[in-house]
Design a protein that fits this description.
The protein has 307 residues and is of the alpha+beta class. The protein has helices at residues 3-10, 23-41, 51-76, 86-111, 120-125, 129-151, 153-157, 179-195, 229-233, 281-288; strands at 161-162, 204-210, 213-218, 221-226, 240-244, 247-250, 254-259, 264-268, 272-275, 304-306. The protein has a 6-stranded antiparallel beta sheet with strand order 1-4-3-2-6-5. Strands 7-8-9-10 form a 4-stranded mixed beta sheet, covered by helices on one side.
Length: 307
Amino acid sequence: MNDKQSGSYSMLVNGTVLGATPIKTSLLLVAASLSVLFTLVKPEASVGLGFWARFSFWVLHIGIGLLAILLASYCLRFWRLAQLSTVLSLGITGVIGAALAAPLYCVVELMYPPELIDGALDEFASQGWWQAIVAEFACVMPIMLMSWYTVNLPYLLNKPVLTTISEPDAPDDSFDETEKEIQERKQRLEHLYERLPEVLGRDIVAISSDLHYLNVYTTLGKTMILGSLKYYAEALVDSGMQVHRANWVAKKHIVKVHITTTDAYCVMTNGLKVAISRNKRKEVKNYFGQSVCAPAALTPVPLRRVK
C-alpha cells in the first residue's frame, strides 16, 4: 500500500457528527451545546428562572433525552432493525427514546412546575399521572425525532469513499461449516454483502461497532450500516476473529499483532490499528503470534486506532 492509498484512508468520513467523532461522543457534544444555547437564549419553557436554575433545567431535559435515546439504541441493537429501512429504524429508536424519557420529564416538571396551564395538552396532563406521561410524550416525541435524525444526518447522507486501488480482491466465500449451520450463516453473509455499496466490493478488512451502527472497512474504502456486530461476526467466524466486543478483523488482512502489558492491537493492511480486549489477548496471540502475516503490507503506513 502506497502513501497515496494510505492518505485516502486517513480522510475517510466515519458517518457521525461532523464526520469526526463516534455517535456517543457526538451526542454528548450536541447535548452540551444545546444546554448552553438554551440557557443563553431563554426559551419560554424556562422563563422566570435565574441563570443557574435555567442551566440546570436544560441540562436535565437534554440529559434525560440523551440517556433515553442511548438506552433505546442499546436495547434495539439486538433486534432485527437492520432489515428495515434506515429512516424507519431511526424513527423507531426515536419514538422509543421519547417513551422512555416521558416519565422522567414528568418528574422534572414537578421540580420546575409551569406558571400556568396553557393549551389542551396541559389541561389533559393535569387530570392524572398517566395523562401527564402521555401529554409529555406527545410534546417531546417530535423534538426527539428531529434531534435524532439531525445527529444521524451525516450517516443518512454518507457516501462510501474509495481508495485508489484499481481492483478489489476476490471475495472469500470459502466456509467450512456443518450442514445444519451453513444456510443460516450464508443468509447472514448475503444480508451483510447486500447492504454494502457495490463500489466497496466484498473484501472486508475490519468491522467496528458504534452503538447500533457498524463501520465496515473493505480494501476499497469504508461505509456505515445499521446492525449488530455479534450477528455478523458469527457468520464471518471462518474468515476472521472478534478481537474486542466492538471490533472484528479479517485474518488475511492482519499485518502484525502487537501485545504488551499496557497495549494490544492488530495492524491491518489498510493502516488501521484495531484494539484487542484483555480477555481476547491470549486467544489472538496463540493464533497469530506477534509476527507479520501479510507480506504485501510490510511498507510502513500511517495508522489510525479503532477502539
